[in-house]
Write a structure and sequence with these properties.
2 domains
């Protein structure tokens, strides 16, 4: 690995809090490598470290991970291509960085997610497989057929990049390190942003696809009790509109069975710790209770939770405590893959195709979209979803209306 190659700069939040650079000899060497030309490199890394530690402490782990990617890329670009301190950047520098993000060098683009560091001989070293950008590969497509030059960030990725850099400069301004925010000024002049009035592809499953997923999970659970957990996860994500992080074990929150509770009118609720460190109570429909009872029975628990039940909401098969978002995702993905194969045989590739693209978050969108279509009040759904504004929920409504528009448009005649 040469000194001009991109390298990881920051760890996970739990590791970052107590980092000792002596334990990361590669990183220490990189930060001090060009000390004569860039005596500010270590200082910039420290600014990024302080900012990310602030984000991890005051926001969420998800926000930390997203901003870590943005700050890491930005500082690597400053170190390896610009040789200009970021506190001297102007609008033109930020626009040049947008050009870079739009088409990064091939050697900066990876094809798979990799750990940033590897542990050996009592220290942590760079993982040569890690790269700052990643080209997502369609499922079942061989890696050798992938052309990295086809990488292009989405509008969401580009907006996220500006959000991260703007937040970083805002932090530097509060620390009186910088006296302006060039990223904020540059954003309006970025030529890659497109005013988007198009109908978006809704990231949700059709009713038929959802039935295949649910029936697949039920069939697997009927044959092997280990899959009771997968069935419970899938039913919960879709029916209660949860993000995968809201079902996972986190540093600041452990989802437990006692978070299901019943009010004086015998309505069931689930207390959820969501984005922005906000608690919300999600309505639990009566039909969902059968899945809750089934899962609890597989764990030799009483049919419904008590206020004193501190057992994990989703329990590890081995070890104690709840499951991480990554592990939960793998369990859902396994069911998606099996459902896709079955649906492809039964109904053909076109009908099953979206199951190849689906992620855990699609279950949340699927549940919400189906609620809109059955006529549920937007305000009630918005509160269950944990949206800060009903306008956010309204976008789901708009997409549901577009389905009706498309259906009516199918019957137009050419002649």
């Amino acid at each position: 690995m040469s000194l001009s190659d991109p390298v990881p700069l920051y760890l996970t939040y739990s590791e970052l809090k107590d980092i000792a650079l002596d334990n990361y000899p590669d990183l220490q060497k990189f930060l001090l490598a060009d000390d004569e030309k860039q005596p500010w490199r270590l200082q910039h890394w420290q600014w990024g470290y302080d900012f990310l530690k602030y984000i991890g402490r005051n926001k969420s782990e998800h926000t930390y991970n997203r901003f870590r990617n943005d700050i890491e890329r930005f500082l690597l670009w400053a170190f390896l291509t610009q040789n200009v301190p970021v506190d001297e950047f102007r609008k033109t520098h930020i626009l040049e960085y947008a050009d870079f993000c739009w088409k990064p060098p091939v050697k900066w683009i990876g094809l798979a997610a990799s750990d940033r560091f590897t542990y050996r001989n009592g220290a942590y070293f760079f993982n040569s497989e890690w790269l700052p950008y990643r080209l997502k590969i369609p499922k079942n497509q061989p890696i050798e057929n992938i052309d990295k030059k086809k990488y292009k960030p989405s509008q969401e990725t580009l907006k996220g990049m500006f959000t991260g850099i703007i937040a970083f400069y805002r932090y530097l301004m509060t620390e009186e390190i910088c006296y302006g925010n060039p990223a904020q000024i540059a954003k309006s002049d970025c030529r890659y942003f497109i005013a988007d009035a198009q109908v978006r592809d809704v990231r949700r499953l059709t009713e038929a696809q959802w039935q295949y997923v649910l029936e697949t999970a039920q069939r697997l659970a009927d044959k092997d009790h280990v899959y009771e957990r997968s069935l419970f996860i899938i039913a919960t994500l879709k029916t209660l509109f949860l993000r995968i992080s809201e079902l996972s074990e986190r540093v600041t929150w452990s989802p437990e069975m006692r978070h299901f509770w019943q009010d004086e009118h015998h309505n069931w609720w689930l207390k959820v710790y969501g984005k922005g460190r906000k608690l919300r109570d999600v309505t639990v429909p009566s039909s969902y209770l059968d899945y809750l009872k089934r899962y609890r029975k597989s764990r030799a628990l009483p049919s419904l939770p008590f206020p004193s039940d501190t057992s994990p909401l989703v329990e590890k098969i081995r070890g104690q405590g709840g499951m991480t978002a990554r592990h939960l995702t793998r369990l859902v993905q396994e069911v998606f893959d099996i459902a896709y194969a079955k649906m492809k045989i039964d109904m053909g590739e076109d009908a099953a195709r979206k199951l190849q693209e689906a992620s855990t978050h699609w279950l949340r969108h699927t549940g919400a979209s189906m609620e809109i279509e059955r006529g549920r009040a937007l305000k009630d759904l918005s509160e269950d979803l944990g949206h800060a504004s009903m306008a956010t929920t309204d976008t789901i409504y708009v997409q549901s209306e577009n389905r009706k528009r498309a259906e009516s448009g199918k019957h137009r005649k050419v002649d």
